């Protein structure tokens, strides 16, 4: 195709003047079709990891649609997300702490949450700390990017926390007897 076969439309997009048997153009306008997320499939995959006895790594964040999620990975499986509800959260924590793989619950995620991703990560950290979990913290002198890094280590997995460093959070962690 040469330049003579291209025209610019009113909205600035470029399209071919000849039809070459297909209807492609160079516009950025797309009608992307997104399928709903298969949370049940993600839970089934996580159950396979658990039945193999894999050590799993977990990071909490909101997904692009605002759902509270856990990103799961193991040495056998690349990272994938599981959208959380209270039962799924309890199931995951129960597995990393005890190795139990009970699996009879509703896999439908809770509704999207209104807090931003950074606050969600802090809220999840506080949930663990308030639950009496001891977090191993990266020493503050090694943190140079305004973040606090901590890891909760359990029998069958680890939970990684990477949250904004604020004096308020640091004071709260020290009040809660976290070794930071």
How is this structure best described in words?
With 180 residues, the protein is an alpha+beta fold. The protein has two domains: 1-33, no CATH class; 39-175, no CATH class. Helix content is 27%, strand content 23%. It has helices at residues 39-51, 86-98, 117-130, 167-175; strands at 6-8, 14-16, 56-62, 68-73, 80-83, 136-137, 147-154, 157-164. A six-stranded mixed β-sheet has the order 5-4-3-8-7-6.
Q: In summary, what is this structure?
A:
The chain has helices spanning 39-51, 86-98, 117-130, 167-175, and strands at residues 6-8, 14-16, 56-62, 68-73, 80-83, 136-137, 147-154, 157-164.
Low-confidence stretches: none
The tally of structural domains comes to 2
Q: How would you describe the shape? A: globular
Total count of helical runs of at least 4 residues: 4
Q: Report helical residue fraction.
A: 25-40%
**Cα-atom Rg, whole angstroms?**
23 Å
Secondary structure elements and pairings:
Elements: E1 6-8, E2 14-16, H1 39-51, E3 56-62, E4 68-73, E5 80-83, H2 86-98, H3 117-130, E6 136-137, E7 147-154, E8 157-164, H4 167-175
Parallel strand pairs: 3-8
Antiparallel strand pairs: 1-2, 3-4, 4-5, 6-7, 7-8
Offer a few descriptive terms.
180 residues; alpha+beta; 2 domains; six-stranded mixed β-sheet; two-stranded antiparallel sheet; 4 helices; 27% helix
């Amino acid at each position: 195709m040469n330049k003579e076969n291209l025209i610019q439309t009113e909205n600035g997009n470029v399209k071919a003047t000849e039809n070459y048997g297909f209807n492609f153009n160079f516009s950025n306008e797309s009608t992307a079709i997104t399928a709903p997320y298969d949370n049940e499939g993600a839970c089934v995959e996580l159950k396979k990891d658990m039945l193999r006895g894999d050590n799993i790594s977990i990071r909490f964040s909101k997904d692009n649609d605002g759902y509270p999620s856990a990103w799961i990975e193991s040495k056998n499986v690349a990272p994938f997300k599981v959208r959380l509800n209270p039962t799924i959260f309890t199931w995951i924590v129960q597995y990393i702490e005890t190795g139990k793989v009970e699996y009879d619950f509703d896999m439908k995620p809770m509704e999207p949450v209104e807090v931003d991703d950074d606050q969600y990560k802090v809220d999840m950290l506080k949930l663990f700390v308030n639950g009496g979990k001891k977090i191993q913290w990266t020493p503050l002198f090694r943190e140079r990017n305004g973040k606090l890094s901590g890891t909760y280590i359990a029998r069958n997995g680890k939970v990684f926390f990477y949250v904004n460093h604020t004096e308020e959070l640091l004071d709260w962690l020290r009040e809660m007897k976290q070794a930071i």
